[in-house]
């Protein structure tokens, strides 16, 4: 009897152990399936799994947590991870809206705009005020520099030098040039450099008047371009920064001025004139005034290097050429929709070539369309 009772007890113990083992195995399987079905979210990502409560949280609690994560400005709740650092990144991403152009919502400046405004400060300080650049600053400009600037202005687009170039013998007939106003005689390299930059500035006019973001600039484009003819990038750099501002939803497109209409409708003529003067400037710098004692091409090149390293005006023109070479493809790239569809590829490739790309843009503007 005693042995039968002992065997019955052992059987019950074995049965209980088997049930416990089965229950433990089932629990392990359920935990594994729960983990597989609800994997932990990435450390720095806010996904739908971060708001799920796998341990039988109610839907009301889930909504409460979601609301807290979105609305709190300092910290939020993200389980099982380093909280403060992870939650701070969540708040930053939700609190600031950044579009494709890099502009920050809420009226902030984009990185490009901040760089441009900093560039404007450096441009003005270095070229006009500080005495460290070659030549004299504005507050200590010499009379020789002033005289040279006046002479270059009188020789604008080589009109006077070509009108009263001198006496020409054509088919043994003496042709006397027009000498109502004598053109100042300057080194052809300085004349070529001056007129090259000014002609390039003229080419920018139709591009500015057809810029798709011109309405973000609240001033007059006529005045802006007129000032550019005298101080070039001093006024173009701020325009490039302002056009990156967010568009005011309440503002309406402004009508073009008379100058804007002329420049837009006559864009091909502007391109022809400006491009021709740029080409003439290069030829004049290398071969102009051959009857004077200005030396060979190599000697003229050496003069140009000395001119840039000793004269603030020439040094500033080099800055202008570099900045124009940056702004030209930038502006054209933003306005390729204004180009004839069949010419977009050509203009897109040529826009990186100084002057040439801008002339191509002006020739290929879409006709009979409000730009």
Automatic annotation (TrEMBL):
Domain of life: Eukaryota
Keyword annotations of the record: Membrane, Transmembrane, Transmembrane helix
Transmembrane segments: 114-133, 145-163, 192-209, 221-242, 262-287, 313-332, 344-365
UniProt keyword annotation of Membrane present: yes
The protein's name in its UniProt record: Uncharacterized protein
Originating species: Stephania cephalantha
């Amino acid at each position: 009897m005693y042995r039968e009772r002992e065997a019955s007890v052992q059987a019950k113990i074995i049965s209980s152990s088997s049930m416990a083992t089965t229950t433990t195995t089932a629990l392990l399987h359920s935990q594994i399936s729960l983990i597989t079905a609800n994997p932990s979210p990435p450390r720095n990502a806010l996904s739908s799994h971060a708001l799920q409560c796998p341990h039988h949280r109610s839907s009301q609690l889930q909504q409460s947590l979601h609301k807290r994560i979105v609305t709190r400005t300092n910290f939020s709740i993200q389980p099982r991870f380093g909280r403060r650092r992870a939650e701070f990144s969540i708040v930053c991403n939700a609190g600031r809206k950044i579009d494709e152009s890099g502009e920050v919502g809420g009226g902030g400046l984009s990185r490009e705009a901040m760089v441009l405004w900093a560039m404007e400060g450096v441009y003005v300080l270095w070229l006009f005020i500080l005495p460290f650049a070659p030549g004299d600053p504005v507050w200590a400009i010499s009379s020789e520099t002033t005289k040279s600037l006046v002479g270059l202005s009188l020789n604008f687009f080589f009109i006077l030098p070509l009108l009263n170039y001198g006496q020409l013998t054509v088919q043994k007939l003496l042709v006397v040039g027009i000498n109502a106003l004598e053109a100042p005689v300057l080194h052809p390299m300085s004349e070529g450099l001056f007129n090259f930059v000014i002609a390039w500035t003229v080419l920018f006019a139709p591009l500015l008047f057809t810029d798709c973001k011109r309405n973000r600039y609240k001033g007059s484009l006529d005045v802006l371009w007129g000032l550019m003819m005298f101080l070039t990038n001093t006024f173009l750099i701020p325009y490039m920064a302002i056009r990156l501002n967010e568009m005011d939803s309440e503002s309406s497109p402004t009508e073009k001025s008379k100058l804007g209409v002329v420049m837009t409708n006559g864009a091909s003529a502007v391109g022809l004139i400006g491009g021709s003067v740029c080409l003439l400037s290069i030829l004049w710098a290398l071969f102009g005034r051959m009857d004077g004692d200005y030396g060979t091409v190599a000697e003229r090149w050496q003069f140009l290097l000395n001119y840039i390293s000793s004269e603030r005006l020439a040094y500033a023109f080099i800055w202008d050429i570099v900045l124009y070479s940056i702004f030209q493809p930038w502006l054209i790239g933003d306005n390729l929709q204004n180009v004839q569809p069949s010419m977009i590829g050509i203009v897109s490739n040529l826009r990186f070539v100084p002057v040439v790309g801008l002339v191509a843009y002006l020739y290929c503007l879409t006709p009979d369309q409000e730009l």
